[in-house]
Every structure is written in C-alpha cells, then in structure tokens.
C-alpha cells in the first residue's frame, strides 16, 4: 500500500502523477489531442489525379503541420527579409491562411502552416512575389519571380544531396590513398 502523503508535501513528480491519474479516465476530443496522437484523416482516392503527384501530397498533408523555406532574392539584410516576409505573411493572413513566420538567415525564412493541405496554394502565392527567389516544399525547390536567370530551373530537387555524396566519395578515395591525419585535416 502506498504511503499517504500530506498534500503540502507533494513535489512536482507527485503532482504530475496525480494529473496523470485524473486524465486517465478523461475523454479527450480528437481536436484537443497532440498532432502525433491524432488518427490520420481518411484519404478520398477519387480526388487524386494520377497526372499530378502534388494532389497526393495535398491530401496526405491535410490537417498536419508543414514547413516551407522561402528565399528572398537580391542580397537583403535580415531586417529587409523580416519586412518583406512580413508583407507576404500579411497577404496570406488576409486570404485566411494561418501561417507563422520564422527568419532563419539574412535571406531565408520558414513559413509554418497548421494545415499542410494549403501548402501548394501558399507556394503559388509566394513564387509570384517579385522578391521571392525560391520556395522549398517537401524537398522540391520551386523558383520564384525574383530568381536570377541562372536559377530558374523548373521544379528542381535539392542538389545538396548529390553534392554531399560526391564529396563523401572524394573523401573516402583520398583516405584510401593516404591514411595520414594531416591529409584528412587538409580535406576538411
């Protein structure tokens, strides 16, 4: 039998256990559950267009939090990026899209969406903005109006993965050739 403790002597762990006991029998509505505990929304396969892989992604991301990276064209300062993306966020807010914005660099921002089903509509809005260089959504890079001439490649995938693999292959070859620590330090 558990030893009875005076309520005034409870510490944080005791209070957490007490809260768990109270919540154990509670009926929590699905909307109040954290996203990872909610059952996935049923997918209506009749709405899927086999010619458009984006339609499948739209339906699978519906109701889930999704993030997209946006790059501002030119060479803006962090303050300019803040102002420009704030204007975009305001435009999206006026169109009833729930978007949060986080600046992650001098020319990059993350747009976080509560409902990923709207991500492609928001992406279309963003790439039509004059100062938008590109939008990265689900590993796909979509060039914007502000992309420079050399950057405008339609719907390319991120080149970093292939580049990293090539660099890793080069490093492994150099390690095989000469196994001295100084050689590895030079490669880094």
TrEMBL record:
Single Gene Ontology MF annotation: low-density lipoprotein particle receptor binding
Pfam family, one: Mesd
Record localization: Endoplasmic reticulum
Comp. bias (Basic and acidic residues): 148-188
Keyword Signal tagged: yes
A GO CC term attached to the entry: endoplasmic reticulum
One GO BP: protein folding
Family named by the database record: Belongs to the MESD family.
Protein name: LRP chaperone MESD
Organism of this sequence: Nyctibius bracteatus (Rufous potoo)
